[in-house]
Specification:
It contains 12 helices and 2 strands; from the N terminus they run ααααααβαβααααα. By secondary structure, it is mostly helical. The protein has a two-stranded antiparallel ribbon with strand order 1-2. α3 runs antiparallel to α8, α3 (about 70-100) packs across α10 (about 265-275) and α8 (about 220-245) runs antiparallel to α9 (about 250-260). It is elongated, with a radius of gyration of 22 Å. The protein starts with 11 loop residues before the first helix and ends in an 8-residue tail after the last helix.
């Protein structure tokens, strides 16, 4: 998708602008929701639209600074990451349910810390992924297989109604061995002191916890660990898919981060609306097949030295965007039985 396009390299200006805008926006978002007892559907919708508007604004910045081709690659990557997030959010719903966390403010806080971790881990994975791409054309074929497997997993997963018990997830069991645990929630705290634990345990003989530990983790902390590990697992699907769209580290990171920072609002929105997007998964799977095809063709072209197909960055963007829009529109027009009610 980027034949004959010069490398952007490490774009300091764009990275600083992105971090400044996102940092200020996250701070404002936290201030707005600081004293709210719950996150309404209206709040979630407005928040989601705000984060999407920021991502679109960054598209115009890249177009102004580097041209439409690079901006198109960024937008295609962003749309793909955002769409893949829908399945991720449904897993987060199951994780919160497994830990009995229904307080939306606490959910908001856990997602906030989870997003900070996701931003850091994405930087590592994107750095490793783009480095691998530069090593050999055969890596493109390997990544094409990974992306194609992700598409197959989405289609197969749609028929799998088995729900995992995330309170017994391997990451939770590992955390329990590494950190002293207080057995129940205590307000909105992730970690509590021994004094707080002792006061909370007064009159409750059945609470078992380490009396010698100075600090203990609550189930909210275990929930955060599970969400963080789940996001790392998701990144093994999403990062290769975005790198398959564009191999520019700056564009990959920008697309991924702009999609990630809006996940808190998207979570509360999708908790209500996701059941209506019954055909979006099929659209995402089709996009992944398209991306895998392009990646495989690119690998074969580099190995053989023969050009087979020439799909421009702008064409790729419109294919990705139009396919996802079709998935949303068909979900509204042709809902599954039971979804409309």
């Amino acid at each position: 998708m980027e034949i004959n396009m010069p490398d952007l390299g490490f774009h300091t200006e764009g990275l600083l602008i992105m971090m400044a805008v996102l940092g200020l926006s996250v701070w404002a978002d936290l201030r707005i929701h600081k004293n709210k007892a719950e996150i309404s559907f209206r709040d979630a919708l407005l928040g989601t639209l705000f984060w999407i508007a920021l991502a679109i604004g960054f598209f115009f910045y890249i177009e102004w600074r580097h041209g439409l081709d690079y901006a198109s690659l960024y937008m295609a990557g962003y749309a793909l990451e955002k769409s893949l997030s829908v399945d991720n959010m449904m897993v987060f719903v199951a994780i919160f349910s497994a830990f009995g966390i229904r307080d939306q403010v606490l959910q908001h806080r856990i997602l906030y810390y989870g997003i900070i971790g996701a931003i850091l881990f994405r930087a590592v994975f994107i750095g490793l992924g783009t480095t691998l791409f530069g090593m050999s054309a055969w890596v493109e074929l390997l990544f094409a297989a990974v992306v194609l497997w992700s598409a197959w997993a989405i289609v197969k997963g749609g028929d799998d109604e088995e729900i995992e018990d995330y309170s017994n997830h391997w990451s939770v069991r590992l955390a329990k061995h590494a950190i002293p645990i207080f057995p129940r929630l205590l307000g909105k705290k992730l970690l509590i002191s021994k004094q707080d634990a002792d006061r909370a345990a007064e009159g409750e003989q059945n609470l078992i916890y380490s009396r010698r530990a100075k600090w203990l983790a609550t189930p909210a902390f275990l929930c955060l660990v599970c969400i963080e590990v789940s996001d790392i697992v998701f990144s093994f699907d999403s990062v290769p898919a975005i790198i398959a769209v564009t191999r520019e580290p700056f564009l990959v990171y920008a697309a991924s981060i702009f999609a990630i920072v809006g996940l808190r609002s998207l979570y509360f929105l999708l908790a209500v609306a996701a059941k209506y997007l019954c055909h979006l998964e099929k659209a995402v799977a089709f996009v992944l097949v398209f991306v895998a095809f392009k990646l495989a063709v690119s690998g074969v072209e580099h190995i053989s030295g023969i050009e087979f197909v020439d799909i421009t960055s702008q064409q790729s963007m419109w294919i990705v965007l139009s396919t996802l829009v079709v998935g949303v529109v068909t979900s509204v027009i042709f809902p599954e039985k039971g979804a409309a009610g």
